[in-house]
Amino acid sequence: MTHHAEGGCHCGAVRFRVMLPSTEVELLDCNCSMCAKTGFLHLIVPHGDFQLVSGQAELSRYRFGTGAAEHLFCKACGIKSFYQPRSHPQAWSVNYRCLDEGHGLVPSMTGFDGRNWETARAKLEG
Q1: Distance from the first to the final alpha carbon of the chain
Q2: What stretches of the chain show up as alpha helix (H) in DSSP?
Q3: What pLDDT score was predicted for residue 40?
Q4: Which residues, 6 or more positions from 48, have their beta carbon under 8 angstroms from its beta carbon?
């Protein structure tokens, strides 16, 4: 049974919907410089299971390091509610903390050592 959840940025300009195979979800808790400073909790959603409902024109882009990840922020409020991660090129990373209340998801947490990215990525594949 497919489960739907919605969310967005703080001001509401950016809104999205995700489809998930279950209410039980795994979150990645990354310690890289970006995630540690913002408190981002990664809910990985395949591209086909993500829909940007509104706010395409409100997104600002930022890349650093290898440039592989595309960080997307609301131009109005500055919140990164989702982005294209380097670790999962075929999926979006949705910030679990940006989901609307009442989503009904039951999360489990897995650490991701983003400070040692290559080693951490290899563990995801293994």
Answers
A1: 28
A2: 33-38, 117-125
A3: 95
A4: none
pLDDT recorded at residue 126: 64
The CA-atom distances, in angstroms, between 48 and each of 36, 51, 55, 90, 105 are: 28, 8, 18, 9, 19
pLDDT tens digits, 32-68: 888 999 999 999 999 999 999 999 999 999 998 888 8
HSE at residue 120, side-chain half, CA atoms within 13 A, is 16
Instruction: Provide the CA 109 distance to its chain's centre, in angstroms.
Output: 14
CA–chain centroid gap for 122, Å, is 20
Q: How far is CA 113 from CA 21, 33, 65, 84, in A?
A: 26, 11, 16, 18
Specify the amino acid at residue 19. Answer: M
Q: How many CB atoms lie within 10 A of CB 100?
A: 10
The set of residues, in sequence order, having a beta carbon less than 8 Å from that of 13 and lying 6+ positions away, is: 54, 55, 58, 74, 75, 76, 77
Strand partners, 14: none
pLDDT one-digit tens code per residue, 75-124: 999 999 999 999 899 999 999 999 999 999 999 998 888 888 788 888 87
